[in-house]
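The instructor's notes for this session suggest beginning with a concrete chain rather than abstract definitions. Hand out the sequence below and ask the class to guess, before any prediction is shown, which regions might be ordered.
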Amino acid sequence: MQRGSAFDCSLRVLTLRDHSEGELRKKLSGKGYEEGEIEASVARMKELGYLDDLRFARSFASSALRNGKGVGPRLKLELSRRGVAGNIVSQVLDEMALEYSEAELLTQLMQRRYPGFDAATASDKEKRRIVGYLQRKGFSLSAIFRELKAQED
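After discussion, reveal the predicted structure:
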């Protein structure tokens, strides 16, 4: 038996943290609400300004970049997984590219994640492990190699 309306459930969900429209729809659907109720609730949340995919995407992307959770293709994938429309993802990634430098983010992540790493004395195995980690985070191979080369010098 459901408790409350889809609107009430949406308010509770959005009180905890910002969500994308796709995430909210998925949560409401998982709780057994009908499609009509879900759409009406989503529309009302947007109307009230409680639900905004652009705001969500900017916040999510900024947080992910600051915390080393992902850049570029990885960030695009994470936003898409959360149901953010492709045009919004592209817009946000373009904005973030102007605000954050991949090289700076890479340097910060290397210092935070591998503080004692010395590229000049590291074994090939260590370098491969670090390159793989950074690629999974979405950094380009060229940026990774530039960073390793800069550390060797």
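Then share the key points. The chain has a mean pLDDT of 91. Residues 35-48 form the longest helix (14 residues).
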